[in-house]
Amino acid sequence: MYHVGSAVAWSDLFFFTALRSDASWSPRVALFGDMGNENAQSLPRLQSEAQQGMYDAVLHVGDFAYDMNTDDGLVGDEFMRQIEAVAAYVPYMTCVGNHENAYNFSHYKARFSMPGDDGANMFYSFDLGPVHFVGIATEFYFYLQYGLFQVLHQYEWLQRDLEMANQNRAERPWIVTFGHRPMYCSDDDGDDCTHSESITRVGIPYLHLFGLEKLFYDHGVDLELWAHEHSYERLWPVYDRKVYNGSTKAPYTNPGAPVHIVSGSAGCSERHDHFINNTQAWSAFRNNDYGYTRMQVLNSSHLYLEQVSDDKGGQVVDSMWLIKDKHGPYPARHSTALLKSPFDRIPRRRGDDGNESQL
């Protein structure tokens, strides 16, 4: 139990449970992005669940308050008070989004303190149970007016961090990344992730420098978590826009590429995003209810994810198991050996609940 303050005033009393430092336990995480202090629809449920002890950590994958710098930071102040009912009880781990770009992300840097010294709160990594988490700043690629050095510095750090994480896979087998702007999405808003050569995926336009997809693939990243789109989307295992399912019957068992999850529908003033009608073969499931994602890493081989709909009173609208008997870099891929998705010719259907999935 603790409180913070000074001789002037003290906060209310809060409590937390210190996390184990070893790898032999099963962490439970809530994750989401794009939550403002207006229309933060998922927040009450998250507050309740955090205080009930349902989570060991929270990942907020970019875009806070809308915006933290508004009204000379007063909107940011209010937002921090709103998330206190979560962040006072469990580690509230963050990465920067496009709504934090003002003044070279200075409001974000001043309000959050993440691990490590290399990234100045903008990129970092940490271990939780059998997982090595890596948080990145996708926004460096989109605000080059703040300098190309930030892109280069992060990329070089990522190479070193992922190399060390691979050397430690006997203890921490899972590598999970989280960053704001996705490599892939099927929304109809024209965002970067809707383009075949998204910047996050292939790097700086025209030059194709410092792209993240090949870096993550070569280092065997298991799961990539994104936000930015105000919706939820689960992808088949994908690399270079091609599907590498483990098998037709068990696509997420020993897949041949990373799995991507987009979870940016916690609730904000910009409301929902909508989906295009005709999706790519790599899109497995889509839902645009307000909500958030739960994740539990059971052990070295089994990881579970589920999507909670706040619109439907906390109902789980999607779930999946990622099962891997072995972790590490994926097979080298060449253009002449790229696998064709077995789902290319499978039609899609829309259920009565508005969700879309492949038949």
Q: Can you tell me about this structure?
A:
- This protein is of the alpha/beta class and 359 residues long.
- It is 18% helix and 25% strand.
- A 9-stranded mixed sheet has the order 6-7-8-11-15-12-16-21-20, covered by helices on one side. It has a 6-stranded mixed sheet with strand order 5-3-1-17-18-19, with no helix packed on it. Strands 2-4 form a two-stranded parallel sheet.
- The radius of gyration is 20 Å and the shape is globular.
Q: How are the SSEs ordered, and which strands pair?
A:
Blueprint (H helix, E strand, L loop, with lengths): L27 E5 L2 E2 L6 H9 L5 E5 L2 E2 L8 H14 L4 E4 L6 H10 L12 E5 L2 E5 L13 H19 L6 E5 L20 H4 E2 L4 E2 L1 H7 L4 E4 L5 E4 L2 E2 L2 E2 L15 E5 L19 E5 L3 E7 L4 E8 L5 E9 L24 E3 L5 E3 L1
Parallel strand pairs: 1-3, 2-4, 3-5, 7-8, 8-11, 11-15
Antiparallel strand pairs: 1-17, 6-7, 9-10, 12-15, 12-16, 13-14, 16-21, 17-18, 18-19, 20-21
Helix pairs in contact: 1-2
Count of DSSP helices?
A: 6
The total beta strand count reads 21
- SSE class: alpha/beta
As residue ranges, the low-confidence spans are: 335-348
Largest sheet: 9 strands, mixed
CA(first)-CA(last) distance: 51 Å
What's this, in brief?
By secondary structure, the chain is of the alpha/beta class. 18% of the residues lie in helices and 25% in strands. It contains six helices and 21 strands.
